[in-house]
Amino acid sequence: MCSPALIEQVKKRISRRNALAALGGAASVASAGCLPAAVSSKKSASPKNTAKPAPKKKRWSSKPVEQVSFSRVVDLSHTLHPDFPAWFSEGEEVTTRGNRTFVPPAVVEVKPVFEWEPDKVNLNQITYWEHVGTHMDAPSHFSEGSTVDEIPVEDLVLPLVVIDIKARAAKDSLALLNIEDVRSWEDEHGPIPERACVAMNSGWAKHVGKPKYKSLDANGKHRQPAFHIDAVEYLMEEREVIALGVDTFSFDNQHSPESDVHYRWLGDERWGLENLNNLDDVPTKGATIVVGQPSIKGASGGPNRTMALV
Amino acid sequence: MCSPALIEQVKKRISRRNALAALGGAASVASAGCLPAAVSSKKSASPKNTAKPAPKKKRWSSKPVEQVSFSRVVDLSHTLHPDFPAWFSEGEEVTTRGNRTFVPPAVVEVKPVFEWEPDKVNLNQITYWEHVGTHMDAPSHFSEGSTVDEIPVEDLVLPLVVIDIKARAAKDSLALLNIEDVRSWEDEHGPIPERACVAMNSGWAKHVGKPKYKSLDANGKHRQPAFHIDAVEYLMEEREVIALGVDTFSFDNQHSPESDVHYRWLGDERWGLENLNNLDDVPTKGATIVVGQPSIKGASGGPNRTMALV
């Protein structure tokens, strides 16, 4: 039996594959989440492989939020400092799909300008590459879509769903939050609410500051839990989810080395949060996430203060 | 008649003057809010004038918030971009109380690193001096007190009181929110709630991008509405207010050229917000302010996303 819904789903999958293919050979040499050192190829570097991007969708609802009540605030952000673990290591050489090479700076530089002694004022110059610490990936990080400043504040306050995969992640650093996890959550709690942020709790936040956070394999590649593309497509196509969240530094891992989740999700004018903290302190359903994302014109994401109102 | 309360108040005022005097001659050459170009003196530059700072207070309550309900979110932040008006102009020479000279960079630099063409990813390097755009002044900006990362998230979600001085500010760019404004507000609405953020609405936000925002005088000095030190001391001493807010870029103006408000308020382990936006869109009482302040270790403040839940 092939139900119309199933046929529709297959069509969409094909459409997704075409969309990824349109990125050119590039996708085949990209790593999950971002671009690791020295993995691009001449083929991928050619701008000729670039398909015309889809017109920007009108994703942002600017809808009034549902009536919300809370009596507790939970900090879902880590404190950012120069030793906070990041995708790129300081000084590591990074080659992009465009075959350009860069050397990342410190994760964040907090350089004193005015100092209490002798200036009687403190003021620092802050410098960072955007995708560090607890931060947003705006659509424009992996697409030509919206930048941070184009997302209205109403869309930064969302119902929060936390899906726990800690048990599996404890045994497998490359564990994926898959479609069965979502369905199992829905069996217990009902459909994922509209306009939700769906966050993966893999238990990874407690590893920050330890080698386990990166869990490097023999080739020096990161191993962290992430989202399965099928779960992500379900959240896009069958539910109206606005944001993803992970307590690791990427939505993708070695199971999706072509950054499928990033390209699909951000390319569809949705956004996400990486390096979330304290997901154990919020209920699986019923909290409201508030993303205090500084509105910097043209930003593709960046550090923020994310909270849960419970 | 001298009531015990009045005697107490006079004692505190004397104590404040002593505290400011302890900053040394420095205070007499400081300008409101921050340090303008070329105004320091040899005398002020001497670290010998420095008094031992008071031990850091335990200001942060980390208290559960009161039960709060809302159904609307208002963006109280401006979008930050290189032309956003700031205390310092790019390239202007700034001499501090410590007699050191600096040349401020652009208000914010958004420098593309990875670009969609050819990299198929966007990522920028962001650089700024902390006190730009809609931002927090942490206690450490004008004291040896807490940095941004030391303020718990519970203290970033507060009852919001908005006091309107637009009528007076329209006639006088140096208008002050004074103690009579606070008392008049209280006559109508009752005592300022505990743990509140008290924000001045001078109507200045709508001038962003126009010369009126800085309202430079004949000597090239800014003219903007600000807080009167007496109102500020009332909010500290008679009420338990945690944060100040202004829709201009400083709590002080030419009426408090020694930065009295900054030194008193931040020096007492309180914090504040500058360059607030959209205060006309929130009620004078009953909203909750949420300060999405990225937690950067050691930061003396910095750009954030501030919202009101109504």
Describe the secondary structure blueprint for this structure:
2 copies of one chain form a homodimer.
Chain A: H1 4-21, H2 26-29, H3 42-45, E1 68-70, E2 73-75, E3 94-95, E4 101-102, E5 108-114, H4 116-119, E6 123-129, E7 135-137, E8 157-164, H5 166-171, E9 176-177, H6 179-189, E10 197-201, H7 211-214, E11 226-227, H8 229-237, E12 243-246, H9 260-266, E13 271-274, E14 287-292, E15 301-303, E16 305-309
Parallel strand pairs in A: 8-10, 9-11, 10-12, 12-13
Antiparallel strand pairs in A: 2-16, 3-4, 5-6, 7-13, 7-15, 8-14, 14-16
Helix pairs in contact in A: 6-8, 8-9
3D structure, described in words:
Chain A is 22% helix and 21% strand. Chain A has 310 residues and is an alpha/beta fold. Chain A has one domain: 3-Layer(bba) Sandwich (Glucose Oxidase, domain 1), CATH 3.50.30. In chain A, the strands form four sheets. The first copy, chain A, has a nine-stranded mixed β-sheet with strand order 2-16-14-8-10-12-13-7-15. Chain A starts with a helix and ends with a strand.
